[in-house]
Amino acid sequence: MDSYLDIGDKSNDVLVLIHGLGSKKESWKYQFELAQHYRVIAPDLRGHGDSINNEDISILNFANDIITLLQTLEIDQAHFCGLSLGGIVAQEILHLQPSIVRSLILSNTTSYIPPILGWMAVDERRRKLDRLTDDEYERHVLSMCLNKPAEAFVLDEIRSFYFKINRETYIETAEAAVGINYTSTLMLSPKPILIIGSINDRITYYVNALTIKCSAPFSQLETFCASGHIPNVEEPQAYNSIILKFIQGIPQKQRITS
């Protein structure tokens, strides 16, 4: 993995933050304060952000890239927090190598994308992307991510650190998630799982958070009522507090064993 941030005391527990579709590692800027408590690692997925690798886009390769990065950094276990697409990648990591996962935080994401609905969503993205410039498309997506309309200067400020559309890989990445199903992975996992959902999420509807909760026996659900798809940006202090409370509430024995 050629692009990532590694912040905080290297002796602390590791928290890996995985961004969403068309986003980048800097989208977690309001969570970087968690480096006061954890070693925070925020990678750019291939085809995103400052990554120079645009080849072989797949959920499997996203997950393997992060696993390989942690192995390179000699990190045996970590807490994983993924938002939207990042939550799908986090579930793939749990599926591939559960021993590396101390806990899972699944934010505004899903565990299952039915093929028909998935391809419809991909086609809609493709049509909009064909009609709009990068700037216009990023503003459109960001306006859908937020719960309330924002003034242009606010949208542009958030857009500057949150999105970086790569036309070469954006649709390919969206296609890679179609048909994913981690229901059995969640049902069989004893790992502590925190689910974060937003009532007003217009990208990944709240019903997805409820579905994950039903699938994961050792999970807990936190709900944002005043945020849309990106509560980590709209309500960062509450978001960070929830993450801290969740990880600190994991019994020490669970946190240091596989």
Give the tags:
alpha/beta; 7-stranded mixed sheet; hydrolase; AB_hydrolase_sf; Rossmann fold; globular; 258 residues; AB_hydrolase_1; Alpha/beta hydrolase; hydrolase activity; 11 helices
Question: What order do the helices and strands come in, and which of them pair?
Answer:
Elements: E1 4-7, E2 14-18, E3 39-43, H1 59-72, E4 78-83, H2 85-96, E5 101-107, H3 115-131, H4 134-145, H5 152-162, H6 170-176, H7 183-188, E6 193-198, H8 206-215, E7 219-224, H9 231-234, H10 236-248, H11 252-256
Helix pairs in contact: 1-2, 4-5
Summarize the structure.
With about 260 residues, the protein is of the alpha/beta class. It has 11 helices and 7 strands. The chain has helices spanning about 60-70, 85-95, 115-130, 135-145, 150-160, 170-175, 185-190, 205-215, 230-235, 235-250, 250-255; strands at about 5, 15-20, 40-45, 80-85, 100-105, 195-200, 220-225.
